[in-house]
Amino acid sequence: MMAWKIIPLMFGWIEVPKHLLTTGLDAELMIKFLYLGFYLTNGKDRVLIDNGINCRYIVNGKAWAGMYAEGGEHLIFNAFKRINVSLNDIDTVIYTHLHNDHVGNCHLFS
Question: Which CATH superfamily, name and number, covers 5-108?
């Protein structure tokens, strides 16, 4: 059996008040959440899990619930450049779910 290597990739971020995620707790505390993807390889197969939010879902620097965010294709390209992998090298893309912050750049992968 081949061992899998897993590399987290940062595809952007959104900053939200904590109370939107933990109702009633820490209303003043702002938390920056990363839009993450994961590159997996066993030396033969190359898999990407999720691919972040596209810039078309960020209007005037804001995304979901009017919260400040950054995302887009340039962050996908930068993340793959850092790990020296071409987007064309990806064999399989897996989506954890179909929210725009997980599938927003699906057009980049055949």
Answer: Ribonuclease Z/Hydroxyacylglutathione hydrolase-like (3.60.15.10)
